[in-house]
Design a protein that fits this description.
Blueprint lengths: L3 E2 L2 H7 L11 E2 L9 E2 L12 E11 L3 H20 L4 E13 L5 H18 L2 E9 L7 E12 L13 E5 L4 H10 L1 H5 L4 H8 L8 H8 L5 E4 L4 H13 L2 E5 L7 H10 L12 E5 L2 H10 L4 E8 L4 E5 L2 E4 L13
Parallel strand pairs: 5-6, 10-13
Antiparallel strand pairs: 1-6, 2-3, 4-7, 5-7, 8-11, 8-12, 9-11, 10-12, 13-14
Helix pairs in contact: 2-3, 4-9
């Protein structure tokens, strides 16, 4: 395709016609507008004196092609939902996407990326409002970015919930969730020499767990004051971010961090640290009632476990038996450090 913004018939047939605008109160971008429009739903029914808050969250994926576009949508929506936890009644309304493509990218690849993003948005019940596409010689592979918008009605009375030392940390699902799926897709042929096909097929099915919207909804009704979506950099990165947001230290038991056996097997084979591997689909909470929240999540068939607590000092500690190690500031994702 030609360098510059994708316009004309290419945009109409490969992007605009692939997007279904079905969200209430959302008008998607028309050709050439480069923006979308949103109106509030049921403003007259808002709680008395409630304040309306808008939260935006961004994501960037360097995973190429349709897989990258799909994960980018999930990550942006997850981050917006996590940021809204504890702030009031919330709903992620829409997501917009930007695609930067190399000049040798074929139009068919653009169509696949748009369709993948649309399918992810449909599963999340969020409107994909716009896809901006630009062809540039500055990139050698497709790069996707996305921005999600969440609407929050803040409580009409009472102090905002916040995190503090002594509260428990709850984690949903498993460490390295999205990264494990990526490793299976990338290294499947090599992994088949070591593991049965059924194990790898089970990994491919983990995509159904990429959304954190169900657990965010539960947490929002359970007095959770702070949440952090696990994404690039894995659960270690997310724990560091959580402590930074809370302004505290933390102590986490490594053995209590949930991890699937498939992740252990694949990471051992490929020499990857699963705790620093993309964990999109997992969510961290802080709450006074960690065990109760974990039980509530499990009743909704969402795996969850208490893995540690916030501490009064600034130390961020991972405990593994007799060993205590300090978390380091956010590291790059383990998948980028593979040789």
């Amino acid at each position: 395709m030609k360098t510059g913004n994708v316009t004309g018939n290419v945009y109409k047939r490969s992007v605009h016609r692939k997007i279904e605008i079905n969200g209430i109160g959302v008008k998607g971008a028309e050709y050439g507008e480069g923006c979308a429009f949103l109106t509030s739903e049921n403003v007259d029914k808002a709680p008395e004196k409630a304040k309306q808050l808008w939260i935006t969250a961004q994501s960037l994926s360097v995973w190429s092609g349709a897989e990258g576009a799909k994960l980018c949508v999930y990550e942006a929506v997850n981050r917006a939902a996590a940021a809204a936890v504890g702030k009031g009644e919330a709903k992620v309304r829409m997501v917009s996407m930007q695609l930067m493509l190399p000049a040798d990218c074929q139009e068919q690849e653009l169509q696949k990326m748009t369709v993948a993003a649309q399918e992810a948005a449909q599963k999340l019940q969020v409107t994909l409002a716009d896809v901006k596409v630009h062809v540039s010689g500055a990139v050698i592979a497709p790069v996707a970015t996305a921005e999600a918008l969440a609407e929050v009605w803040t409580a009409p009375a009472g102090a905002a919930l916040s995190a503090r030392a002594g509260q428990q940390i709850v984690m949903t699902k498993w460490a390295g969730l999205a990264g494990t799926v990526r490793l299976e897709k990338t290294y499947r042929e090599a992994l088949l020499k070591r593991y049965p096909a059924q194990l790898l097929n089970d990994v491919a099915q983990l995509e159904q767990h990429f959304s954190i919207l169900p657990e965010a909804a539960v947490a929002g009704k359970s007095g959770v004051g702070l949440a952090c979506a696990v994404s690039e950099g894995g659960v270690f990165h997310a724990l560091w971010t959580l402590a930074e947001q809370a302004g505290t230290g933390l102590e986490v038991s490594l053995k209590k961090i949930p991890i699937r056996q498939e992740t252990v097997e694949i990471c051992n084979e490929l020499d990857v640290n699963p705790y620093e591997l993309s964990g999109n689909g997992s969510l961290l909470f802080v709450t006074d009632q960690g065990e109760m929240l974990a039980e509530q999540l499990q009743q909704q068939k969402i795996p969850a476990a208490v893995i540690g607590f916030l501490s009064a000092d600034n130390d961020r500690v991972i405990v593994n038996g007799e060993e205590r190690r300090f978390l380091e500031p956010a590291n790059t994702d383990a998948i980028y450090r593979m040789e």
